[in-house]
# Entry
Amino acid sequence: MSGKKIKILSIDGGGIRGIIPAMAMDAIERRTGKPIAELFDLIAGTSTGGILALALTRPGEDGKPKYAAAEGIQIYEREGHRIFSRSAWRRVQTLNSLSDEKYPSQSVEAVLKEYLGDARLREALTDVLVTAYETERRSPWFFRSQRAKVRPDYDFPMWQVARATSAAPTYFEAFKITTEGVEEYYSLIDGGVFANNPTMCAFVDARTRFPEINDFMVVSLGTGELTRPIYHDEAKDWGLIQWVQPVISILMQGVNETVHYQMQQLLSDSLDGKPRYYRLQTRLEVGSDDLDNVSRTNIRVLKLLGEQMIHDNSSRIDQLCEMLTSD
# Structure
């Protein structure tokens, strides 16, 4: 085991912007000729990244991954309007989201059940780690497929794990997930409130599980770096209502950049002359950084940003693909 190299994939949260890391993973699959689940030892995800991690490790009837990354791209294009859908009456009823969550849960749950089916966490084709936050215990929560294999009370249906990690505050209501243990249930919201970029969580988890291993390769996929400024003259007089959405985006962006810096320092040395840490990210100079902008135009812009990111990092992607398939 000491000579083994542990390969980790981490996928940020970001709502509909998950189409960007889905495109990056499609590029990796096409260049290696292998599914994502076969290329990595651990896949971590938060929110939309958690959904992708589960979808790409869900087994099909033949025991291989049911979905390719290319199908993940199509899911965003096809199902975005179903997930982020609300009636005019709901706008009125919730005072345009001031008195209740923005979207009803039925649509997102229907989509998750449709794509993840009856698959359970223990069935993931490679180890997965999906983040959430427990509101009653006020603590970070991690869904681990490794734990689910030995603890039936932690073996939840994949669709429920996906629903919990993507329960973004103000967008969807917290998800109550029941358990057969003495705890009875957990109240969970989007893991993005503490780990929108779950790379460090995944790295620590792997180091803890494999203390004898020194070789780690980490690939971290972003959903777009926010560039929309918050101007002082506008923000200086904001109150609670005006600050709610900006604060959420600030927290998530701050976590993303902090974790990126930490990983750069921890894995600054090379492995056989090649980097051990790869971060694929793009700046949202155009389009919308909203989690729920599912307009045809915005999805098109996100895809163009993803294409440009892949083009600009083509040689790095070739390099990491070579490392992923070198063993």
User: Anything to note?
Assistant: The mean pLDDT is 91. The radius of gyration is 19 Å. The longest strand covers residues 127-134.
